[in-house]
From TrEMBL:
GO molecular function, one term: methionine-tRNA ligase activity
Keyword Lipid biosynthesis: no
InterPro entries: aa-tRNA-synth_I_CS, Anticodon_Met, Met-tRNA-synth_bsu_C, Met-tRNA_ligase_1, Met-tRNA_synth, Methionyl/Leucyl_tRNA_Synth, MetRS_core, MetRS_Zn
Name of the featured protein: Methionine--tRNA ligase
Phylogenetic classification of the source organism: Bacteria, Pseudomonadati, Bacteroidota, Flavobacteriia, Flavobacteriales
Record's keyword annotation contains ATP-binding: yes
Functional description taken from the UniProt entry: Is required not only for elongation of protein synthesis but also for the initiation of all mRNA translation through initiator tRNA(fMet) aminoacylation.
């Protein structure tokens, strides 16, 4: 498309069954926000649209787990998510929710038109059914083995391991996620979108039309789906949570969430357009509008095959010009998991790192999983801040502003004749908006962020080479020119950093005493390339303040400790508890003689890893006991430790040493052993009963 008149940018609707984490940000919301901010900066008409996805099986599942209603869940997480996005600087033009009346109306009308046009097929199919729960098991109410990759915890609609979409009935060894029972098969009526009918259109539109401009990971996944042969896809579900299917004979059924959710982009646009006095149809039905979907790779099939087929069937909607889906972001070497709490949650980050939104934005952009899965580590986060934002960007700005106040009381000096070096630097500055913009327009946000940092490097190198702090002693007139040139670079950074570092950009513009580009006032993106003067001589700048602060090791260690606690909690949760042993009589219990003793001596048993040889005073005598506790305790650390000892256990030779009893132990939450000991010191030989 050449010179679009307007842009509709959508970001995947987040499920309101939990908060937003860094995987969501890196995969969808940060790149989409950079793109939207950039387009606004170059004067484009932009509708950046999103909203909470409040239907689907995940919501009632979370509600059952927490013992509340689905409405409680969506209200709770919609509030958390919306607030987090706002505080993080995600600049949606509209953030709606699919529980809104306008969405229910829009989705129902969309379905009804396709139904009336004969675009659906009606089928009675066999579905998994939980007899105990008395309900059909749609989507994530069932887990089993993926038929493609063998992953044993695949959901009924999609495998999180290999990304394959399938029907619940395709699972091997399926089990109900509600009761754990093996489901039965029961017939039910549903409506299907015949994707096979749209196969030729998809081949022509994507496989031929977008072979060169869509990302290889997106194109490859679509090609694989189409080449495998498309099949009809259900657009309704047997659930009591969602948008009721708006036709007779569909009682107890709702629109499938992946039919309803993308329509949320349209209903959210309607909501925005009504508020802003615009025509929503211009943004969805005009050929001079460019539609771009930002999603994660697990949503490619829905945005590149199912939703376009729905739009095509409607007849008068435009199709996405691009779907620049990212791969997955891992955390400290492990896959992010909402259910296992293995994540960096946005609302918690905003609490732990106040006023440091741009540090996370930059780190996630510089390390974005654009072409392959990538890993977020707290050490890399610290390095990106300390070695790049602080040492390069922040250092340049701080030196320029501090020296300007020191030498000229914050008034930009009048330059003298420019040297060849000055002219080269100013010419290079003019190139950066186009360089950065080209990367953004090609959805190479990581590359664009590094070009931004290269502009800061240009400024640092210029100052380091020219050394105004030295020349001020011998050539004050030359220093005026150096500082003037450096200030032009600072102004350029204030503008082109805005899509990536909006809070930093605003702070820098305030320090330079310039305003955002608004009509004929302020400094605009295009000015950096077209104007010779960005900050005029005589312009008064404001006081300097640090743009970024160094992040210390203790701050990072605290985050790593939080993750370690999560890992231990997960291990304990997944650790199976031994079942109860067979019932014994009271007389059997009374045969056990358990007494309190004190360890007098301890040493390792030669050629073993687990065994310690102990001398224990058990009151009635002092005896030798061999215990497998060497991996949890050092011999020198347990001298004087009171323990519980089964003293009437028959002696047994272990590695050549006769053991005359057994010490009672249990497991701790971190997998180590712990002594079963009295709360207070007691006399050796006291019986435990």
């Amino acid at each position: 498309m050449s010179a679009p008149k307007r842009y509709t940018i959508t970001a995947a609707l987040p499920y309101t069954n939990g908060p937003i984490h860094i995987g969501h940000l890196a995969g969808v919301y940060v790149p989409a926000d950079i793109y939207a901010r950039y387009l606004r900066n170059i004067g484009k008409d932009v509708a950046y649209i999103c909203g909470s996805d409040e239907h689907g099986v995940a919501i009632p599942m979370r509600a059952k787990k927490e013992g509340v209603s689905p409405q409680d869940i969506i209200d709770k997480y919609h509030t958390i998510i919306k607030k987090s996005f706002l505080e993080f600087g995600i600049s949606f033009d509209n953030y709606s929710r699919t529980s809104a009346e306008i969405h229910h109306k829009t989705a129902s009308e969309f379905f009804t038109k396709l139904y009336n046009d004969g675009e659906f097929i009606e089928e009675v199919t066999a579905q998994l059914y939980d007899e105990e729960a008395n309900q059909f098991l749609a989507d994530r109410f069932v887990v089993g083995t993926c038929p493609k990759c063998g992953f044993e915890e695949s959901y009924g609609d999609q495998c999180e391991n290999c990304g394959t979409s399938h029907n619940a009935t395709d699972l091997i060894n399926p089990k109900s996620a509600i009761t754990g029972n093996v489901p039965t098969i029961k017939e039910t009526k549903h409506w299907f979108l015949p994707l096979d009918k749209h196969e030729d259109f998809l081949r022509e539109w994507i496989l031929k039309g977008h072979k060169k401009d869509w990302k290889p990971n997106v194109y490859g996944q679509v090609k694989s789906w189409v080449d495998d042969g498309l099949k009809p896809r259900a657009v309704t579900r047997d659930l009591d949570w969602g948008i009721p299917v708006p036709i007779e004979g569909a009682e107890g059924k709702v629109l499938y969430v992946w039919f309803d959710a993308p329509i949320g982009y349209i209903s959210s646009t309607k909501e925005w357009a009504a508020r802003e006095g615009k025509n929503w149809e211009d943004y969805w039905k005009k050929d001079d509008t460019k539609l771009v979907h930002f999603i994660g790779k697990d949503n490619i099939v829905f945005h590149c095959i199912i939703f376009p087929s729905m739009l095509k069937a409607q007849g008068d909607y435009i199709l996405p010009d691009n779907v620049p889906a990212n791969e997955f972001l891992n955390l400290e070497g492990n896959k992010l998991s909402t259910s296992k709490n293995w994540a960096v949650w946005l609302h918690e980050y905003l609490e732990d790192f106040p006023n440091q939104q741009d540090v996370l934005r930059y780190t996630l952009t510089a390390n974005a999983p654009e072409s392959k899965d990538n890993d977020f580590t707290w050490k890399d986060f610290q390095a990106k801040n300390n070695n790049e934002l602080v040492a390069i960007f922040g250092n340049f700005i701080n030196r320029v502003l501090v020296l300007t106040h020191k030498y000229y009381e914050g008034i930009i000096p009048t330059p003298n004749e420019f040297t060849e070096i000055d002219e080269d630097v100013l010419a290079a500055l003019k190139d950066y908006p186009a360089i950065i913009g080209k990367s953004i327009e090609r959805y190479r946000f990581r590359e664009a962020s590094q070009e931004l940092m290269n502009l800061a490097r240009l400024g640092n190198k210029y100052l380091a080479d020219e050394e105004p702090w030295k020349k001020i002693k011998t050539d004050e007139e030359r220093v005026k020119t150096i500082m003037y040139v450096a200030l032009q670079i600072a102004a350029g950074l204030a503008v082109v950093s805005e899509p990536f570092l909006p809070f930093t950009s605003a702070k820098l513009k305030n320090m330079l005493n310039i305003v955002f580009c608004r009509k004929e006032k302020g400094l605009c993106w295009s000015d950096i390339s077209t104007k010779d003067i960005l900050l005029r001589a005589g312009h008064q700048i404001n006081k300097s303040e640090l743009l970024f602060s160094k992040i210390e090791d203790k701050t990072i260690d605290a985050q790593l400790e939080k993750l370690e606690a999560t890992k231990l909690a997960n291990e304990q949760e997944n650790k199976s508890v031994e079942p109860q042993k067979e019932t014994i009589e009271f007389d059997d219990f009374t045969k056990l003689d358990i007494r309190i003793g004190t360890i007098l001596e301890a040493e390792k048993v030669a050629k073993t890893k687990k065994l310690l040889k102990l001398k224990v005073d058990v009151g009635i005598d002092t005896r030798t006991i061999v215990s497998g506790i060497a991996e949890s305790f050092s011999p020198e650390d347990i001298i004087g430790q009171q323990v519980s000892v089964l003293v009437n256990l028959a002696p047994r030779k272990i590695r050549g040493v006769e053991s005359q009893g057994m010490i009672l132990m249990t497991d701790t939450t971190d997998g180590k052993l712990a002594f079963v000991e009295p709360e207070k010191a007691v006399k050796n030989g006291q019986q435990v009963s």
